[in-house]
Structure formats: C-alpha cells, structure tokens
TrEMBL record:
Any Gene Ontology biological process: methylation
GO MF, one annotated term: methyltransferase activity
Species the sequence originates in: Rhodoblastus sphagnicola
Name this protein carries in UniProt: SAM-dependent methyltransferase
Alphabetical keyword list: Methyltransferase, Transferase
Methyltransferase listed as a keyword: yes
C-alpha cells in the first residue's frame, strides 16, 4: 500500500461523520488507488455517486463545450438537471441539445450573476482549471453558484509533473507543434484540441490549496492525488524511466511530483 493510499484510508476511518468523511467513503467505495488511469476511468462514476449519496440533482458542468460528461438521455435516467458552461460560443455550440447552456468566463467578476447565484447543488469540471489564469477567482465564483450545502469537484493536471513543466516553460507555439506532432488528435480540428495552459493553483498539496479554498467560501475539501500519465508512451526508454519515478513518487506520497488531482470541496 502506498503512503498516499494508506493516509487516505486512515483519514477515512478516523474522521467520523464529517462532510469530508462522507466524501472520502464515497471515493473509497469506488476503489480509489492513486494511479492516473483510475482518475480518468472513475471521474464520471464519482460524479454519479456524489450526486446519489448527497442528493445533488442540479448540476453545473464548467468548460463542458463539445464534450459534456452526460448525454441528455443519461441525465434523464439519472434525474439530473444539468447546465453546461463554456467560455467559447463555438465549443458550446458543439454540445448536444437538451441542456441549459450558459456562455461566460467562469472566473470573471460577473460570472455568478450570469450562471445564477445559489442555483446548483454540484459544480464540476475536468481538465479546465489549468487553462484559467485566475483559479482563485474561479473557485470563488463556483462557491457563489452553489447552494449552502453544495459540492464542487475539480479534476486537473498538477505541477510539477514533467510534461506540464515542459508545457509551462516552452513557448505556446512550439509546445503546440510538439504536442500535435505526437498526438494528432490535439490539433484544432481534432477531437481534443490544445488550449493555452497556466497551471494556476494546479497542485495536489493541502498546504497549497486549502487556504485559497477557505477564502473562496468552502468549509472542507478532500484532495486526491494521482501519479502517472501516458504522454511518453511513444518513447519506450523515457516512458520506462519516468514510470519508475512516478511509482516511487506515489509510494512516498510526493505531492510535488503528482500528475493529476481530484479536489472535492464542500460549502
């Protein structure tokens, strides 16, 4: 058992009936390990279980654009009222019909009034926060959009994993060319286009995130780190060396070397 997973399970056992214990048990029941593929495979089940266990029906999906988490028929089956948000009218136009749609910059001062203050039980986003220049403002606005007992889930890449450090240091035009050469689907007309990344507050350490989250109006948060990625899959030697380092970082719970994080914050 890794240090990170042992700490998570121990905290889950010790925190009693608190809101964070509730969230930790939901994730534990899904079989949380600190491996990168789990966070991708279980993001949707995590949203579903949070919704079911805590009665969170009114959803705001931030940065949903062309790729909302739930299709309209799924939302109907799960009895979810979902509103999609995106900063791009083009991206939002690619989403299927059958949802509420809100066009705005979620980090802008007027975002709470546009999306609706206290209008949602659950707000969530995946691979969005790294593209936001002012993540603290984004969290404040998410807090304003939630009901008093609302929950927010953010899934994002974390510093200082090597691919993101490279992406941060290399000029955007050059990093775009490199990424699109290795992964053609990341081209502007592909299924997963690249957007500029800032990595503001993209960390998995409680010491880096909790003060900011409390200033944003959240009383508690569970932060789940993950290690590993597939970016070097086409470079066998680099892939194997990097994977060995990530396994060591996971065992030692080196948060500064994590690759992704879930942050589940409660009002």
């Amino acid at each position: 058992m890794t240090d990170a997973l042992h700490q998570f399970q121990t905290t889950c056992d010790q925190t009693g009936a608190s809101p964070t214990a509730d969230i930790r048990r939901i994730v534990a029941d899904l079989g949380y390990p600190a491996r990168w593929n789990w966070c991708w495979e279980n993001y949707k089940p995590t949203v579903i279980e949070l919704s079911r266990a805590r009665g969170l029906r009114r959803h705001l999906e931030i940065g949903a654009g062309r790729d909302p988490l739930f299709q309209p028929d799924e939302a109907t089956q799960l009895d979810l009222d979902i509103t999609l948000n995106d900063i791009s009218a083009h991206e939002l136009s690619l989403a299927p019909s059958g949802y509420g749609k809100v066009l705005c910059d979620i980090a802008a001062p007027d975002a709470p009034d546009i999306v609706g203050r206290g209008a949602y039980d659950l707000a969530y986003c995946r691979m969005v926060m790294e593209h936001v220049p002012d993540v603290a403002a984004m969290w404040r606005n998410i807090g304003e959009a939630l009901t008093p007992n609302g929950v927010a889930l953010a899934f994002f890449p974390t510093l200082y994993a090597l691919p993101y450090v490279m992406n941060r240091l290399i000029p955007e035009k050059l990093s775009r060319v490199l990424l699109e050469t290795v992964f053609p689907e990341r081209k502007p007309d592909g299924d997963d286009p690249k957007f500029p990344a800032h990595y503001d507050f993209c960390f998995s350490g409680e010491d880096r995130l909790m003060p900011m989250l409390r200033r944003a109006g959240f009383s508690n948060a569970v932060i789940l780190p993950f290690w590993g990625y597939s970016y070097f899959s086409k470079f066998p030697i680099l892939r194997d060396v990097d994977a060995a380092f990530n396994r060591l970082a996971e065992r030692r719970d080196w948060r500064a070397a994590s690759s992704f994080a879930y942050v589940v914050a409660t009002k």
